[in-house]
From TrEMBL:
It comes from the Eukaryota. The lineage of its organism: Eukaryota, Viridiplantae, Streptophyta, Embryophyta, Tracheophyta. This is Nucleotide-diphospho-sugar transferase domain-containing protein. Keywords: Membrane, Transmembrane, Transmembrane helix. Residues 61-81 are annotated as: Disordered.
Amino acid sequence: MGSLRSTQHDCGGGVSHSLSFLLGALLPTVLLLFLASDRVDEQLSSISTFRFRNGSSAHQLTSHAADLPTNGSDGGDKKEESFPGLAELLPRVAMDDGTVIITSVNEAFARPGSLLDLFRGSFHDGEGIGHLLNHTLIVAVDPGALALCKAVHPHCYLLEVMAAGVSSANGFMTRSYLELVWSKLTLQHRVLQLGYNYLYTDLDVLWLRNPFRHISLYADMAVSTDRFNGDAEDLTNAPNTGFYYVRSTNRTVEMVRRWRAARSRFRPLAHDQEVFEAIKGEFVAGELRIKLVFLDTALFDGFCEYHGEMDRVCTMHANCCLRLATKMHDLRNVVADWKRYSSLPPPEKMSSKLRWTYPAKCAATMKIPA
């Protein structure tokens, strides 16, 4: 495509018969690529690092999503003003297929010894996933968090949330908490508009193995679950939006726009997960025809539906847990368990009787039976 543009420029707008013939021959191929662009970025980074011969990555074919607002969504200029510098930062963070890992942090979670240290440490302790930190965008929601992030991580972005108390360890369902979760979704919407896929992860998710190997290539959205019923496409699964992947297409841009807009249909203190749970069927069965899959808790584990096995788990989420100190206590046990398991020689890992320490303190905050 780059050579085609330069030829047109050299001709000063005039097209020879030979060039017309060449254009006619190329047009069907270009059209096929355009029509296929809704699926071209399905090859996740763990499977494919394909690049086109001119050096552009596959996600650039799908960046049209940024310029096609639908059903009354805002145009690109207004969104761009809301997130200065984001469009310039994302190419430095993205994988070859245009996927960005996103998490968010406030000052309380970013302090030394808090969740940010546990989160980043899990990549280094995990099985061959340290490089994924290079593709992780940490969104700071206050200036203090931004400064702490920059001290330890190369890709930090400030999304100031205008709500009281956002720098502290916000309690679940407080007004500050709600403003945080909805503001994060607004930024994620913009990431999709710019043509990038994203995997959003809460900071209280420890990464142990590469999760992309277990996310369907054909999913528009893959979301973790608090409880998994065995069928990845069954809408009765209980989604947890603390860990989910979205592929950038026009349909998913519109899906997230409707997700955000649906907040007004629910009680004032509804959070993003509650709203998504209520309207997920509209995305799947409606005109968007979103391919939604739910992630198995045996692979994407969490404290809600706890599995003791350590041989397959990719991530461990401190869900079904209240209060920062409680999360930190039980997640530190996870880190200690993983280090003991990782230190074993491969043959011993296969026969190991090691199991995760039960998250008793977190379970007590939610009255979850052992």
